[in-house]
Every structure is written in C-alpha cells, then in structure tokens.
Amino acid sequence: MVNLTINGKKVSALEGTTILDAAKQNGINIPNLCYLEGIHKIGACRLCVGEVEGAKNLQPACMVAVREGMVVKTNTNKVRQARKILYELILSDHPQDCLNCQRNQNCELQAMGHRLGVKEARFSGEHSAGGLDISPSITRDMSKCILCRRCLTVCNEIQQVGVLSAQRRGFKTVIGPAMSLPLNTVSCTYCGQCTLVCPVGALNETDAIQDVWQALNDPNKRTIVQTAPAIRAAIGEEFGLEPGTLVTGKLVTALRELGFDEVFDTNFAADLTIIEEGTELLTRLTKALTGEGATLPMITSCSPGWIKYVEHFYPQELDHLSTCKSPHTMLGALAKSYYAQKISFDPRNMYVVSVMPCTAKKFEISRPEMQNDNLPNVDAVLTTRELARMIKEAGIDFCNLEDGKFDNPLGLSSGAADIFGVTGGVMEAALRTVYETVTGRELPFANLHITPIKGLEQIKTAEILIENPLEDYKFLDGITIKIAVTNGLAGAKILLDQVAKGESPYHFIEVMACPGGCIGGGGQPRPTSYEIRQKRMNAIYKEDEGKILRKSHENEYIKQLYAEYLKEPNGHKSHELLHTHYTPRGKYNELMR
Amino acid sequence: MRIKNLEDLVKIKEEYNSKMAEYNYQILVCGGGGCVSSKCGEVKEALDRCLKGYGLSEKISVITTGCMGICALGPVVLIKPDETFYTKVTPEKIAEIVKSHIINGTILEKYTYYDKARQLYIPNINDIPFFKDQVKIALRNCGQIDYSSIEAYIAKDGYFAAAKALSKMSRQQVVEEIKKSGLRGRGGAGFPTGIKWEAGLKAISDQKYFVCNADEGDPGAFMDRSILEGDPHSVIEGMILGGYAVGANIGYIYVRAEYPIAVERLSTAIEEARRYGLLGKNLFSTDFEFELEIRIGAGAFVCGEETSLMASIEGRRGEPRQKPPFPFERGLFGKPTIINNVETLANIPPIIHKGAHWFSQFGTERSKGTKVFALAGNVVNTGLVEVPMGISLGDILFKIGDGIPQGKAFKAAQAGGPSGGCITKEFLNTPVDYENISKIGAIMGSGGLIVMNEDTCMVDTA
Q1: What is the SS3 assignment for B23?
Q2: Is A98 a catalytic residue?
Q3: Which residues of B touch A42 (CB under 8 A)?
Q4: Which of A375, A497, A534, B111 is most buried, by the most CB atoms less than 10 A from its CB?
Q5: All domains in chain B, ordered by first residue
Q6: Do B302 and A169 touch (CB under 8 A)?
Q7: Which of B224, B130, B221, B196 is nearest to B329 (CA)?
Q8: What are the tens digits of pLDDT across the range B138-182?
Q9: Contact criterion met (CB < 8 Å) for B322 and A65
Q10: Structural domain boundaries of chain A?
C-alpha cells in the first residue's frame, strides 16, 4: 500500500493505482472526460489535472500513479482555473448546437460544463473541418468530435478491427478511416462499439426514427414490431431504472401505445433459429462422422457485425458460418409470408420494425440477401436508444406502464431464446435442444446452464460427452463435442486464426461481435460498462429461469409453424425464408468487384 | 579486419598516421551540407585535376571532411600542416591556390579569411576569431578528418573509449563516469545523462533498447546533421558505450528523412564498424553484443519528441503519449529504452576516454562541457560553433559570429525553437547555460540560434 495525501485527506492505495482511482476510492471525484475505466486512458483532455507537490506542471490524475508521500491537490484555485480554461478551449472547437444534437442532456461534454460551472463560451475562433459521414449503421459528425480517442481504442484494441485512426495532424486532426474514406467503403463491421463510448454527438446510430414515425402514421401500413431479447434487460436504464431491471411487459405496452399493430418477439425467431441451426449442426456432424465430409467447426451467424467481420477479414472461411439468417430477419420473413397469409394481408403494405441492441442490424436489413419476393424482410431497425427517444417523444410514462403481452403466433418464446442476448446464450440454447434430440435426455447441467461458457470472459470453452444416444444418433456415441464461445471481435480473431490454420479443435463456435454479447451491443444505452453488462446479463438469465418453457423445441407455436407452413427443419421453405448466403468482401472490399 | 582489443586500435592509428606523414600536404575540403550546396564537389574535382597535372597526386592527400563550421564562407579548404584556411573557393581559385601555395610555397593571402573589423587577412585558421574562441568536444573531428574513413576516426583515438569501457569498466562504472562528468542532454531539456543511464541500467527486463534521436527539427538548427555527416563514428561509439552502460543490445538511430547525406554517411559508417567487428557479437572479445539500425522519419516535427519517436520506430503514427511511464520504464516495444540526442552521444567517447574530470573543467557549475550552436539569420558568420557553457550570448554573436551584417543593429536572437524564446539586447551578457537561459524566459534548446536585426518585425516573427 502507498500512503499519500489528496486534498488534505490522508489516504492509501495499492501500488500502481492512478491518482484518479485513488481519489475515487476515497470519495473524491476528479472531473475527467476522455478517460474510460479499464479501457482507455491517454490523458488527452487534461481535465483531470491536479497539483502534485514537487512537480513543475499540473499532472493528469488519470495517468499518474500514486507514490509514497505524494501530496495531491485537485481543488485549488490554480487547478480549477486550469480545468475551466481547458474545458473552454475544448468547447471553442465544438459546434455548441446542443438543442439540435442527439446527445442533448445525455452528453458528457455538456454535463462537464455544467459541473465546472461554465456559464458562457468565452472563446470563439476557428473550427476544425468536421464533415458528416452517413453509413447505413453509423453516422459520424466530426464537427462534434473532441478527440478523446475512446473510439480509437475500442476499434483498435477492444474489437481489433482497426478502421478508425487519427488522420492528419494538430488542429486538423480528424478521427476516421484512412485517407478520410467514408465508413461504408472500408472494412467497418458496424458493431457500433464506438457509438457506445463517444462522449459527445460525434458518433451515433444512423437515425431510423423518422421513417418509423412515418410508417406508424400511414393508415395504409400495417406496422409490425419485434424486440430482441437484450432490449428488455436494458431499455429501463434510459428511463432512470437500475441497470439490470427487466421491463419486458412495459416494453410491450409502450410499443402498443406507440401505435404498432402487432408486437412480436424476436425471441420466437430465436427458438426457430435453434431448430434450424441445431438441425444444421447435426447434419454437419453426421456428414463429418459418416465420412461424407462437412465444414466444421460450424459458427453461429446471429450477429451481423460478426458476419461482416468474417466477410472482410476471413472471406475464405465463410463456409464455417451457419446459413441461418439472424432471428429478426427470420421473423420479418415469416411476418411477410406465413403471418400475412394467415391474416390474408398484402405483405407489400406491411412495415416490419426491429428493435435491436445493435447498429450492425441497420446495415444487415439493407443486404440483398435479406429479401424475399422483392420485399425486405425487415423495413427498419431501431436501436434501444432510438426506441427510448420515441417513447419519450410520445409522452409515454414508461416506468408506470402496465405489463403487456406479445402477440401470437410470433410472440411466444422459451427461456432458451431469452439467453440469445448474452454471450454463451446461443450455444447453451442450441445444446439444450441438440443434446436432448440426440440422447433423449435433458442437458446434464444444473438449471440447464452450461456453467463453463457463462460469463464475460473473452473466450470460454467446454466439452460435452455424448453417451447412450438414441437409435438415430448411434454414430455419436462416445463422441466429445467441443465448443467455444467468444464475445468481442478480438476474441473472434483468435478463434478464426485457429480455423484458418486448420487447427481449430472445436465442432461448434458461438461468436457475438460485441463484448458481453447483445447486452453490450452498439445500440444499447450509454454508458455500457463492465458492471452494467454484468447486471444486464443477470437479468437475462433471470428471465430465462423464470419461464416454464426453457427449451426451444418445446415451443408450441414453433411446432405449429412447422406443421402448418415450413413442414420440416432445413426444408425447402426454410431455405427460402430462413437461410442465407454470405458475400466475400476482403479487407479493402477488393472481392466485391 | 576484426578489432579485438585496444592494441588493434593503436596499430590502426599508427599505420594511418604514418601513412599521412608521408604526404607533403593534406588538403582538407569541407564536405559539410553548406559547402556541398555551394559546390565543394566541383572544387574537389578541380583540385584533384590540378594536382594530377602537377604530378602531385601521390604526394598530397585530398580529404573531404565534415562541416568546418563557417558555412557563410563556403566552400572552404584547409591546407595542413600550414593550417592555412581558404574561403569562398571556386574551381578557378583552386588552380591559383595550388600554384601559389603548393608549387611556389607562397600563401595566397587574398583568398584567405578577411577580418573586416581589423581590415586584414588572417591566413592561419587558429588566428581567426571564429575558431579561436571555440572549444570543440562534440565537433572534435568535424572538419578535421575524412568522415568516410573509420581509420581516420580511430587515428583520432576513436573507439578507444569503447575498448576501455568494455574491457576495463563495469556498466556501473561507465554510468558513474558520465554522472560525474555532469553531462546534460543536449537535445534541449538538459536532463542529466548519467542519471538517465542509471535508470536504464537499473531497469529490469529481458530486452532493453538504446535510441539516438537524430530527428533534429528546430528552425535553423543543423548541429546534429553536421555531426552525423562529419563524424558518424562518434555517434556510433557513443551508442555502443550507452548500450553497454544500460545493458541494451539493440540500438536505433532515428534520422529525419530530410537528411539524406547524413543517412548515407551514417549507413556507410555503420557498415564499416560492423566490418571491423565494432558492431555485432563479442565486441572487444567480451560477451557484449550490440547491433545498430537506422530508422528514417517521415517528416513529422513531433517525432523529435521521444515518445512520438518511439511510436514511429514501432511503425505506428508518431504521436506523443503521456509520461510516466518514462521510456526507461516502458519505451520502445514496451521495453526499457534510453534515448539520447546526437550531440550528447558525440560527447560520450571523449568523456570515457579522457575522464569525467577533464570534461567537467569546461562549463559552469551546473552546466558542464560545451554546447554546439547553429548560427543563422542576420549574423556575419553563419555556421556551426561549439562553445564552453557559460560564455555570454554576446560573445557568441559578436566575437565568434562577427556581429550583424551591413552594420545594422541587433534586435533579438531566437533560441530553443518553437518552445524557446527571443532574447533581446539587454540580455546579451547572459551566460549561456541551462539555468541562466531559462531564467530569462527562453530555453537552451537544441542549439538553433536565429539572429534578427533591427529590420525584423517581432510581431511577424511571433
């Protein structure tokens, strides 16, 4: 332990602790703007500076480690004045157009000004160039960028996609893809993690709210909405509820009050995915073990950021991906076919909206592969944040809403579908069904949770031994199924490198592009920290455990869907509506031409 | 040949000196950047032709050296052993000089240095005020030897310090010697070199690096370029000593791309040193190994800052990062790294060779040794000078620099580049050392001194 004095308080902290953390542990919150706990500290904004006895200059608290006998003052006139001027200088190169900004009242720069007691923008001067870049998923407004570089760290180190970097120098510095190319021409996966950490309005999802309002107000349109599992565990935060508060029922009611004609649950399609993907896995395993040959490991395909990542960086490995569409596009396809037929409605007048924790899904729905009969499976994607804004705009008192229920037939789901929202969940859901299909027995884990693949670690693995299988699966007797799960693209890179080298020991891999899985998606409420992910994850597991129906294959509406319409898993109709193919892109999109 | 010990060096030195003694004359043609620009190449060609014409090619050695310092009068030529210094030499003049000086034995006074104040010619280089008041440690060989010859460097006791340190001194002793010498970083900030090295020595790691910062970028500054061009081996030897002292076996010299001649001469020198076994494994028959590589910058001024420089060597965008961690803790590729400037390193071999006491006799109490300055702007003797610390700024500008041209009045001297300041007339008596320069609001900086006369608008300058 190191003993030091901060603002006259004698405190001690572990060696290596920064002044900022040591202060925080002792009830002193030093203002800071660019710092992001556990992820990003470069001392760029300088707002956390303090006086350190013996040091010539003010020292950034986020960077400097505590030393024995150190005397730190963070609240002197000199410090306060420096901090204020530093803030004002940042502000002088910022549009200060708060009323028109998406981040108004949820902006770290704005909040800091209030906190520091800055009442006017004293300095006016030249503004850096800025520039607007609108991609299908992400909108970059570089005039608002304060060069904190959180997005750089997330893009290069956490996700290791490496699309964003600093371009040009000094005052002309702009954060963006190389050579100032727009995002939609580079290998951006649209994971949106950058939008999650941006302290200002420089990085946001590309707005779909206006399109959705328009559809809702169009009397000729039948509006259908579906929500992903991760929304119910997170959207409450936008209304001041504790992270991890489950608001499934309120969410349904809010969507109905917004004017949607049907409120479906993407979870239904998650159950369907398990049937389709599980069947695909068994088919591949059968072929591999009976000598016919099949590409293994099979890798999940629910996460569109992950899909685009593979298309860019491992285009030669696309055969490993399951051909299943992501659940919400499956549901969209079914809404415009199965459901439209059921209610005798012209699908051309249907408007399907997906509420997703994800920015990559905005791009996904624009892919030519995601159409059937010349109709897009899904017409618009709203992020969790966007839906919250719509609810607020509509004047809906979210926290006091009665609980509502999803509409059927595309609304019932099992607990297995709920856990699609968290890393390890798709794998567990699949194995709950696959194991039972093969052995006729339940997955041999307490509470059906495969504990080794639960949690927020980067890469998790497990082995499951198949013993005494049913007659049809005798060839699997004694086989150990090896699985791996990863969240975040840095982990995906590790597993994919093994695959590319032909050294992957696994049969089945689950990848979710965002750290934590969909609960930490790029479209989720800000902030999304490690602790918040944890709380959302716990909420998701609680939702699962609270259900009587825990396994996808037990969902009655799924059975009905196959009986009435699809006939059999991986059948002709399934392939038409629920499966897809992938596009090799290459790192520089060189394979696209 | 592969040099294994001090005796090998002494042998080379003696051979080289006796070879040189056989010549009647040595004619030194300045090949510094300034003289190259004013076509010293043509002068050298003319000289070779002329001597050949007289059949004297075998009797007289013609040597191209590094910068002699007085760039305003280039191309310059020094004839030894007479120590006669000819200025503004052209191919036409050289024919006259050879005829008069070499053939007839008469100094051709009208082409030698002219002292305007005293209105007389000063043929002997040692009588010229510009040279007389200088003390050359870092520039000891610049303009004195053939920069391209490792033997010439060895003949000036080159690599003697390395031989001594590696075979007779412990790492700690080398560090102690540098600490005792009082040498401070010549890049500008003046951090005590010995203390930096000690931190490097104490850092625990499987790999350490030693880096030479040759990304000289301050306006008007060309001290480091001249050293690299005129005496590249002094920097290499400095790095071997530094690498040994801190325990680094890989060194990088980061040179800016705008210095192509320096890169070329340095590359040749590194290859020479490698050929002589002065780089590589088992230096001077010890276990110590040291390899050296050049890294070329891409034109960013900021890469002269050490953390940016390291990022650039690593192949990343050259941008500063917060210190701590200091380079000696986590530097290049995350490993302990010691970074020194070119001039600092050029000072190292003489300190180890002649001892800390010898070095510390120059300079002031807290600023030991000498400092190289590049005089530029409105000063008669633009060029490169090395002066003992503590000399007044006025002496540098008026005695050595010979004042302001055309009888104009002095207005200010900009010192220390963009982080420095402008020093005005009332501060001309300030002794030039780290503390006193800081006290008047400028900084010592790397050594660029831009002189401005009464016609300069300070608002425009700012």
Answers
A1: coil
A2: no
A3: 321-322
A4: B111
A5: 20-132 (3.40.30.10), 150-360 (3.40.50.11540), 370-461 (3.10.20.600)
A6: yes
A7: B196
A8: 999 999 999 999 999 999 999 999 999 999 999 999 999 999 999
A9: no
A10: 2-91, 207-593
